[in-house]
Design brief:
By secondary structure, the chain is an all-alpha fold. The protein contains 5 helices and no strands.
């Protein structure tokens, strides 16, 4: 149990730290709204797809394939997306995709 908590904190704490740092930089005027918008476009349209491609390209797929786990994950993801899409009716269409993600 403690090992799982330690692993979760090890993975999430750098992300939380970066979020807090970004907020502080924005709050003290070191980042502008324009930079945030262009930086977000760069991250989501270029660097994140490259990172995902590199991770998939170097992964040992045969070691990861577990049919039962894979089937369960697919069903859960499809149900979650369908439910979120149904409950996002009151959100503006331009923001709906962001909400579901």
């Amino acid at each position: 149990m403690l090992q799982a908590l330690s692993f979760a904190l090890t993975v999430t704490s750098p992300i939380l730290f970066m979020l807090l740092l970004g907020y502080a930089f924005f709050r003290y005027g070191m980042l502008s709204q324009e930079f945030i918008q262009s930086g977000s476009k760069l991250v989501f349209n270029v660097t994140l797809p490259c990172l995902l491609f590199l991770n998939v390209a170097t992964a040992d797929v045969m070691a990861l394939i577990q049919p039962r786990l894979l089937g369960s994950a697919i069903v859960i993801i499809l149900l979650a997306v369908a439910l979120l899409w149904l409950f996002s009716g009151s959100i503006a269409p331009a923001q709906r995709g962001v909400f579901v993600q």
